Structure formats: C-alpha cells, structure tokens
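Fold this sequence, please.
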Amino acid sequence: MENKAHTAREQDIEILQPSSVATDATLRGTATRIMLALFAFSVVATFAIIVGYGLGYLKYPEWFLKWLGLATIGEITTFLGYILKFLFRQTIENKSDK
C-alpha cells in the first residue's frame, strides 16, 4: 500500500513540475526581433538603392524613386510611432483615463 501511495505522490509531484512553455512574452520578444531585423534590412536596402542611383550604378524610372521615397518615409514613421508608443505607454494610458 505504501509503495502505491509513494508512486501516486511521485506522479502528483511530476504533474506539478513546471514545464517549458513558450510564454506570450517570449513570443512577443521573438516577433519583435524578427520585425526589427526585417525593418533594418529594408532600410539598408532602400538607402543602398538610393545611393546606387545617386552614384550612377543603378538606373530606375523617376516614378519608382518617388514611390520608394514615400514608402521609406511611411515605414520609418510607422515604426517610429510604435517605438514612441512603447516608450511613452504610461503617459498615453494616463491621458486616456482622464
């Protein structure tokens, strides 16, 4: 009887042991790193195209360069907004409570 009780107790302890689970914070951190890497790559690639065009190594139509400039401004302002929202979250939440 004692052996069965000991085994049942060990099973209960094993069930209560924490297991490694991908938490929401881990997923959020991983997604943030991936998005930051993609953002950095796109900014570097965009500026490389602009510099390459300026130096005469690349030839693109004028409409494409205008579109590329607007897309660059759009992506930078979007990420800047996310960064500012993250940094000043406390201030934004306090204003919405009033």
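Residues 91 and 97 are 10 Å apart (CA to CA). Helices lie at 2-16, 24-55, 62-87, 89-97.
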